[in-house]
Amino acid sequence: MRLTLDKALAVGNQLEVEAINGTQHVVLTPGLAAQCGYSMESDPWGNTRIYASLMGCFVENEEDKTFVGLRLTMYSQGNSEVITHDVAKTCTYSAWASREIICDRNYMEVSNYIATSDGSVDMKGQDLYSEESKNDASMCEGFSSQPTSHSQATGIWKMTFYTPEPTVMVLREALEAGYGAKMTPNRLVVRSPYNTAETYSEDVAGVPMELLKVSTYYKAQHGLTMVNLAAACPIGGVIFSEDLISWHVPRRITPLIEGRVTILETHMGIDGEGLDKKQMIARHYTLSTTEYHFVVEIPVGSPDGYFKSHAPDYQYHLSYTVEPMLEILWRADNHADTRYKILFPITTPLMPWLPELSDNTIPEERVFNAQLGLFLHDVELVNITFSTGILSVAECNARGLTVQEHSSHNGSKTFTLTIPFAEDAVLKYNSEPLVTVYYLSVILGFFILPEQTPFSHPLELEASLQDVVLPSIAGTCDETFFYISVKYGSQGHNFQTMIGARLLTSDLGEVYSLTENGTHFSFFLPYTSPDTVFELVETFSVKARVDLLLWNVDNNWKLGDFSLACNFPLNTTKCFTNGTVSVLALKVESVPNLTPSWLTLTDKACKPYFSDDRFAYFSFTVDSCGTTRTFLDNYMVYENVITMDQHSKAYASPADPSYRHTVSCYYLINETESLAFHYKPRDKMPTAEAGSGQLMVQMRLAQDAEYKRFYQVTDYPIVKYLREPLFFEVELMQSTDNQLELILDNCWATLNEDRTSLPSWDLIVDGCENLDDNYMTVFHPVVTEARVPAHIKRFSMKTFTFTNDAEVLKNQIFVHCDAVICEAKSTLDGICSGQCVNAKGIRARPFKGLRKGEKLCSALRGVYTSAIGADVTACFM
Q1: In this structure, is residue 199 part of a structural domain?
Q2: Mean pLDDT of the chain
Q3: Residue 713: phi, psi to the nearest 5?
Q4: Are the beta carbons of 325 and 305 closer than 8 angstroms?
Q5: pLDDT of res. 115
Q6: CA pair distance 526, 111, nearest whole angstrom
Q7: Looking at 434, 465, 496, which one is the last position of a domain?
Q8: Inter-residue contact 752 to 877 (CB < 8 Å)
Q9: Which segment of 53-67, 483-497, 599-613 scores lowest on mean pLDDT?
Q10: CB–CB of 584/615 below 8 Å?
């Protein structure tokens, strides 16, 4: 019989059994339970199953058909107040086989049918799973309050155990040794715990078995009778794979089967309850037969079993426990039946289980959000170890570090942690200049209930966030100084500053008047500082540059760099009226290995009056140091050359560029032959290569001759009558350099937008109006205050159209112009000599086969821009 108690009833782990007559209370210790035919199994949820043999102690037997027993009182051990639950069961069972063998968790039992009072022997066995037996078994599920009594084992004289040597005991001695023996109205029962002195082990078909062989002598009405009894129970035969349990039971157990037998029935069950085929298929259970074994296969994780947590070496492991039952009914040649029932709890070896981490962190929310699981229901999170200390779960939640437990319908657990990036235990560092990495390492401390077994699990979380603001640098110049300001980024002043090739130390900061507050620092330095470089030296100015580098020395990151170049006024050459010349030579960036002290004038004996690592200062008279004199127009010119001393240069790198600087002084000769000073530079110091870019030219059509109002793009096409004047303006845009002048080289008209199309007619040729035109182009002077006059050219023409004899080819024209940008004071010949300087030398473009007509020109459209040398085009329609 089986009694199942849920968690509410199973308050303890010991049972007190009340005798049927109500006069005796017996505590079922583990030894007494095995001797009397009781066993108990509890799962981690606290649910308990109690099994009692129908032939056990304290069970009232009525003709081996009705059994009243299992009146129990449960109490909690160690509790001063006993909590009792009185339960009882009444079962009917009549499907006895001649021999019944039970292998339970803690004992093995064998019972044989014996002669009745009239001397007959009932050898008929019945099917446990017949309709009759099912009805009998169902009666065991009810509770009854009927009293129970102790059934005395009378009539047994002595017992001989074989191990295999015989050991003889009278009944009292056998009971004292822990064995159970009794006679019922129809059966003789012997019960033995496992691993007693009179049992022994033996391998049967590769499966270890625990065996009991005993001859029992008892007194019957017809005299002394002896019955040989044997039981054999498997204590092994289980094979585990990752997801399957295979349980092997020998088909032929030598002490139990002698001679030929016929297997009548085989059944599988769970927790002592049989399963039909549909139930087995639904659970993926199989029961098969091989040549030597009955094989039961159960998937690991089947719902009929349960998992349990363990923590060997403080590491989380799982085991799976399930209790299959195998029942076999066979018949021997003498027509005696044997029912063999095995209740066999199976627990898998410990399986390491690594809970999965789900990192649900969204870095922009600046909070770690992680979930760890799965754990079994018997795991409890106790504390969390941070780098700053250990906190209990309650303490974590009180500090805003949210720790929650989540349970699923199957009893498994997960734990979630929500920890802000701002928590002290969260470390942060920069993986690259703009990215901050937030790192959290904790150890979660757990207990396994009810054993309170501790184990731990480390947890590491990392999130990257582009939340770093780099420092910024700004700077300005005046005529003497660079002014530099550095604003700190989000990481504060965690960097070093390089000015040129030197580190900005506190000593250097005093030299440059460094000031600092919580947000930025600033300083200023003269352009002659040794931490600047000279890019370009001209007659009256020098272009100097300062370079800054912000550097993180911990990880060798460049956090920012900055270069500021400015022109500073500096007259490097001075020519005095007394014939003295002073020259300042500077070391420029393009000649990095130049040593100023190696410079000399034409006369190598004339060395610098003063020099250091950046400057060389010369002072000489015009009649010394190899100075030459020439006459040019009304000037007397004195020249000298500063070069590298060849002897000194031998020590420099052969790849160093040569250094040559010509110094010139011009003296004006007037009509009275008296001399006056005038300086005109001829050569420049070594310079860096000039930059390149684009100049933009625009062509517009004015609405009036004063060029005050212009047509817009949306105004086109524009209708004009024949011979009506058109006023054009061409301008060099986005330039304020008054040293540049725009010259119109050629302008012509075509019938379509293709500048090379025919027919065409010249309007301006080589900078002048077309002399072959009856209505010549007219240039207009430019007077403006807002713009540079030299950048603008204006001309007008009279509206015309193309004709072929009497036919107008098309009532539209397009105008194209080539523009040239020249130096305003250029003395060169050609187009840059000025707009139409010598009109007499101009030749018109050849006639293209068509002449201008005098009919209506319908429209004008277009504003076009161009780089230097490209077309500037206005078009008529």
Answers
A1: no
A2: 81
A3: -60, -35
A4: no
A5: 67
A6: 115
A7: 465
A8: no
A9: 53-67
A10: yes
**Run of H or E residues at 664:** strand 660-669
Residues 802, 848, single domain; the answer is yes
Domains in the chain, number: 6
Residue 824 lies in domain: 696-876
d(CA 174, CA 155): 14
Tokens 């770690």 found at: 368
Contacts of 70 (CB under 8 A, 6+ apart): 1, 3, 17, 50, 52, 58, 59, 87, 88, 89, 148
Structure token digits, residue 507: 């000593």
Structure tokens at 528: 């002659």
Structural domain contains residue 620: yes
Among 594, 686, 671, CA closest to 641: 686
Residue 741 and residue 712 share a domain? yes
Has residue 646 got a pLDDT over 80? no
Structure tokens given for 561? 């760099």
Whether 484 and 531 map to the same domain: the answer is yes
DSSP 177-219: TT-EEEE-SSEEEEEEETT-TT-EEEEETTEEEEEEEEEEEEE
Residues 734 and 870 in one domain: yes
Cβ proximity of 340 and 328 under 8 Å: yes
Q: Is the pLDDT of residue 566 over 90?
A: yes
Encoded amino acid at 384, one letter: I
Pick 210 or 867 by higher pLDDT.
210
- Report field, pTM of the whole predicted structure over 0.70: no
Tens of pLDDT, residue by residue over 456-487, are 999 999 999 887 788 999 999 999 999 999 99
Q: How far apart are CA 639 and CA 629, in angstroms?
A: 7
Least confident stretch, 254-258, 597-601, 814-818: 254-258
Asked if the structure places residue 337 within a domain, the reply is: yes
DSSP state of 833: G
